[in-house]
Amino acid sequence: MQNANQYLDKTRSAAALLFKGIDSYLALLRENSTTFATSYTSEEDFQKQYNAWCTVNQSKIQAALEAQKKYLGESFAQATLCGAVLQLAAKAIECYSKNTKIPQDLTPFIKPGTKPVPFCTGRLVRGVPLGLVVYASRNQHTHFEDHDRREPNVEVFRRLAVNHGYGKHLSEPFIDPAFHLGTESINSFANNVTALIEWRSLEAYESDMRDLLEI
User: Domain-by-domain residue ranges, the chain?
Assistant: First the structure.
């Protein structure tokens, strides 16, 4: 393949199948969702309405709980597909990125001429260039068993975990467990990251990739 356009064309069918698979897991939750919404005058009134809603919707609530349980059981399988999407994107950026600049705030973590430099491009996601989010999350997914983590991967996830804009009044920033490398219940962050960057369709993925690769 001679250029980025050819790469996206030649891998489009694979990317489409990956997103179809990812959506099949999300459908477990989407097709069995149930929500309680009401207006109330007191806590007692709220509880009364909620209890009545639970009685009427007992079967739906049970179905939703079973769907959530099944989804959690398939979470690593879904992350595997998301990791494959990140790998497709990372290879394209590695081969065809035109970027040679390092953002000033990332110079303590990235040195000129190193592998992460071509990835320092794209829209900002919680203060991190999208390409670098792809780089770090692909690495974490591929080496999730490796606890000897390196920069800039650690700094990328630190920013994703704290630059969410919530709890600004707190003296210590709230750490989002969905992106905190210390969250022991998460092996691969690929699913969480692709959700954050809104890569849930082929169209969204390709749109960002064309911006990243300047095509």
Answer: 84-213
